[in-house]
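Review form for a predicted model. The reviewer records the input and the model, then writes brief findings.
Reviewer: anonymous (R2)
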Amino acid sequence: MRFITCLIFLTSMMPFLPKVHAADELVIYSSKNASFVKPLFDEYSRESGVAISFIVGPMPALLSRLEIEGQGNKADIILGTGASYFWSGSEKGLFATVSSRTLERNVPEHLKSPKNDWFSFSKRARTIIYNTEKVSESDLMGYADLADKKWQGRLCLTTSSVDYNRSLIAMLIASYGVEKTQTIIEGWVNNLAVPPMQDDMQIFEAITKGGCDVGIINSYYYARLKREQPETNLKLFWADQNGSGVHMNVTAAAVTANSSNKLQAIDFLEWLTTKQPQVSYANLSMEYPVNPKVYPAREVAKWGRFEEDTHPVAQAGENRKTALKLIQNAHYK
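Model under review:
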């Protein structure tokens, strides 16, 4: 039996799914591409016998849809990337509070909502990439150090419109405060070798071709690079190991406030944080499991261990407005 129905969310004019659905069915709004989540949904359906229908769309659009639908909400779960988005949804009351010993045990405190209304099930490191032929590992320290004049004309970044960068800056505010973070961003802008790029893969290309020597990227992109170029001279550096640690952003999920199938939705959230789903998703995404008892994919584990920033990731949302103001002040495009 085929349990999964994928509905691609293109516009707000798309016909709504029926509100009433069976107790053995879940409706999920997902910002993650179907290639990452459908195998998980298939796996859950095989184990539980619960059918899953899902809509794929950008996280802001999915949150807006939940808000517009209100009590007529069609989804049981929203699943996606970005702690700041989940913080925003929580502030708007779009999610249900969940009490679960399984989630308490499997999800570290800093990777979930302080209100217990959303929970991470995967995390990605945003750290430094460098050219080993031009930069010694001993030259590197962390995010703030990239503002130093020694990196002038040597730094590559993606644009400030990339949510990963906004979240990183929001978390730097948590570590350093507003004034120091403003100085860091201004230093980054002064040190840029080329104008900010649209995505992390362009940073790899720029460093490989000598356009810059260092950059900031999501670690899973490095897995893609290594597959395509096993002998690459680019290497990851784990930022701020003598400070707050590597910035982590998350893939998370929440039960919607107006779900008509909350018990099954909670079961799905709990299932996401258990061993086999954690392993499966880590192998699909090249991200890191949130469950402390589960190891990352072997390909990722080879990059070595590191200390991560344990400031609550919800601060990526709490500090977002301030981060945007600092970005504007620094003329970071």
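Findings: DSSP finds 13 helices and ten strands in the chain.
Further findings: The CA atoms of residues 161 and 333 lie 8 Å apart.
Recommendation: see findings above.
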